[in-house]
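Researcher: Sequence recovery benchmark, item below. Answer with residues only.
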């Protein structure tokens, strides 16, 4: 499926002079703080609408032949390297079995209470592994509009390490003494 997304750009002109550098920096700040998240939000809304319509007609991948009806929605705050945004997630329910489904969350591979993207966690772990929490925090705040505390970064790194480090099996190793 292919979809075309278009946008309008509105701006005001001024008689006051300004430099090209100022214009470029302000445009860059505008995109980093608003535009990227808005575009991501628009894409996710589009995906969700398609998934919900497929689930309602029994054509959702992995659930073919099961008809789901809307069963409310909830708001989910998601943090990414593009920034933080709030997303309305639609819940659906199978009228026969009562099984509940959140098509967009399942499609994106998000866990039920997940609030950050895996790419953000990877970026944080890489930044912290090469520098202190304080310096990494300051760098991430300036580069990705990330508004979290040092302790939160520390917890993310610890949780990431717990889930991704394999403990070697030492059962077959003899005495080293």
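Model:
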């Amino acid at each position: 499926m292919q979809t075309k997304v278009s946008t309008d750009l509105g701006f005001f002109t001024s008689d006051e002079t300004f430099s090209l550098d100022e214009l470029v920096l302000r445009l860059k700040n505008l995109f980093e703080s608003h535009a990227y998240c808005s575009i991501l939000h628009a894409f996710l809304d589009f995906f969700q609408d398609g998934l919900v319509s497929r689930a309602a007609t029994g054509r959702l991948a992995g659930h073919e032949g099961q008809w789901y009806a809307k069963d409310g929605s909830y708001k989910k705050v998601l943090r990414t390297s593009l920034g933080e945004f709030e997303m309305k997630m639609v819940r659906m329910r199978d009228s026969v079995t009562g099984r509940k489904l959140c098509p967009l969350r399942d499609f994106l591979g998000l866990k039920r209470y997940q609030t950050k993207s895996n790419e953000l966690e990877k970026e944080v772990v890489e930044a912290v592994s090469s520098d202190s929490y304080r310096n990494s925090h300051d760098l991430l705040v300036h580069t990705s509009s990330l508004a979290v505390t040092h302790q939160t970064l520390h917890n993310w790194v610890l949780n990431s390490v717990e889930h991704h480090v394999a403990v070697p099996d030492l059962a077959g190793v003899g005495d080293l003494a």
